[in-house]
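Assess this one:

_____
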Amino acid sequence: MLNVVGVGSAWGRDDAIGLALVESLPSDDRCATTLLEDADALTLAEWLISKDGPVVVVDAADMGLAGGAWRFFSRDEAALATRSDSCSTHGFGIADALALAANLGFEQPTYVFGVQPFDLSPAMGLTPEMSARLSDLATALRNALDEISPPEIVRVVVSVEGVVQGVGFRPTLKRLADAAGLGGSIRNRGGDVLIALEGPTTRVDAFLEQLPTRLPTNAGITSLHVVSRDRVEDPAAVFKVIESDVSTTPRPSIPADLAICDECAREIFDPSNRRYGYAFTTCTACGPRYTVVDALPYDRERTTMAPFDLCPECAREYHDVHDRRYHAESIACPTCGPRLSFLDNRGRPIPGSALAESRRLLAEGGIVALRGIGGFQLVVDATNRDAVAELRRRKHRPHKPLAVMARSLDVVRQVATLTDEQAGLLRSPAGPIVILDMHRDACRLVGLPLDVLNPDTDTLGIMLPTSPLHHLLYTPIRDDATPPFDWLVATSGNAGGAPIVLSTDEALRELVDIADAVLTHNREIRLRNDDSLVTVIDGAPQVLRRARGFAPEAIPLSRPLRRAVLAFGGELKNTVALGYGNSVALSPHIGDLSSPACVDALEEAVARLLDFHRVSPEVVAVDRLPDYQATIAGRRFAERHGLPLVEVQHHHAHAVACLAEHQIDDALALGWDGTGYGDGGAIWGAELLDVHGDEFTRIGTFAPSKLLGGDAATREPVRQAMARMIEAGATDDQIMTRLNIDAERLDIHRTQHRQNILTPATHAAGRVFDAVAALLGFAPDAITYEAQAAIRLESAARRAGSPPMSLPFREVHSEDGVTIDWTPAFVELTRMPTHQVREQRDELASAFHDAMARAALAMARFGRERTGRKTVALTGGVFMNRLLVELLVPRLRDAGFGVLMHRRVPPNDGGVALGQAIIAGRQ
């Protein structure tokens, strides 16, 4: 066995290199390692004579070489023959220690690994220069040890799963293996990567140990499994990237689309670069992935880039291991890649440069349909109030917020509160839309019409340019006379609730009444992938719409599923999921299933999931509500394929989705949203659940209220306020005055309420928000997008700050659980004089949010008393309300609860398919 000792002082800057290098050695049966800090010659000599077998001393050595250089000395070399500091930065010199040990009878082979320091001044820690050299020096030391005691030569084959295709993983592994002096190969398979490493066992083991910390930026390993380990006599001298294996069954690791990287962004604005002004510039770190894939493994011939043969220069880059475009499957240039075209809304080519003409039209107030990474976007100059208003009119979108793209972070900082976390999200490879708090006065100064972009609140969804084409829309190149833009609206390219448009022909058919022209290209898009939407809540990101940049990355599970399952999700914010093994692949956001085209998009997403993964589901999971289009589609699929159908309760799916993110199976869950099919057909939505494994017990809810007219009440919140006031004992005059309705309408609804005519009862928390918003005068007569009334209510509460008052509720305990009755709050609001409500409506909105937080805390405390559980998950669309979460979470933690929140999967119905898949797959 080799005895390796690191000598040095942590107080002598690079004098500590010996300690650091020996500490980095892997533990194995070949080496016994020791650290001697601040040792003198006697201490080292005593250590030497205690050892049997060869000895290696590792230390900083002043050899007159460049900083960071190293030499490997044997004991017999002249440098160690006399008392000298030439092989040690210590005053005593290693030679003295060796001489003293020899006098005491030490005769074992001895070696010194010396490193030239950069700086020996008294200070803690290595210099930055030496730290940067540490990995290379560690490799050199291991190679030196291999010379003294040749290790076993092995061939180790490993299977790596995770985000390992389409992210530069193979090129990175090739460079790392070359640097480590290892032979072997790497190849993509149907969803994993197979790596064979050949070389000394210590180097191979060290390589695999360090691999998870040396990945390319966008890669991630979920599992690394050793397939085989064998001794070899003649290891391969070269590490190769070999052709992908298409025969294996894929696993859920389809690469996500990535925003343009800084290097590619610099190239497109460099007149000396051959990709100057090229709208399809990519490398291994950026560009389309998921949306151009035809099949797995991910290689160019199985993407929509296959028709574009590489020119000689691109081919050289593609095959050069030292080039950042080595095996970049979406590589292209103006000579061999896709091209832009600019058409009027009848499909006729517009003469001139596609980019320059598009920019000119935007500057004139026109609307451009732009073919992006995952589908079309509708683009206008965001500072042109009339143009934005015209987009709203044509798109029939009067109030719903519009996503805005900013030229740079500096532009964003002029008008928004921007934390480091939010800035990091904007600049991340995912490149999502991030919800930011805006400053209205600053927006007015730069000409950004916040009241038109988002009429209901002082927030705005902002993104940065995510593709070369986006960047080139902002900044003129060549002879383009149109000035730069700072802000562009970039909203989904669809009409009337339909899915986003993919093809040019579809855009000319579906968007002709919205867009003035179409900026398109001939790189086909295989799969829809809208922009992701993210917020920062409780100090960390929370995905609200999971699409480009995040999907279809799989969600790992704490324990495997018993059977493969296909889950069809919910009706709103629909996604579908395919679960098998230890993970669930969740599709990108599909949308609200309000039209036949959206249902078609759902079925298309199902077909592509099954096609990619080549997995036959053994069970189908759907929501309990029979009228959901997703449930109907799932039932139809199950019947067609002869598969069992599992109906999953809506809020149970919400809760399990949240717990799965945190690798937890048992907890309390508050599932609050606008609706959900409960036991006996009741409308749930303010649930306290005790989740245990794949089952649940309902132990809390809100007292029910009647929905006057059923679904009509969700569209007209005043109906909900009327029902609450009736149930609170309000007089006709109070109701008519407060809600501004006439006696005839009130008489109809009172009769409806009394005789239970189309008045289903709801327990949902979201409906309480609607009713209060209407009662305080914030809700429109008819909402134009989901949660509009609640969003207005939250915005008002934020304006007010901490409430000077409180609203009451009643907490009722029984054998069945806890019930929160909001009747006392509506009694108080009804009794308040109308002028007081109008004058203090912002403060009352704040008081209501505070009351909701107190009610949630009361439910959690009851749950702990009933079950003993001290962890609570917050799930459902109501917990997208940042103010509610900010009020509630600190109170829960102060009360001793652990709080789980959605991070990677939306708290709204975009996460329901994940929960459905887990529940059905484990039964």
In short: The longest strand covers residues 220-231.
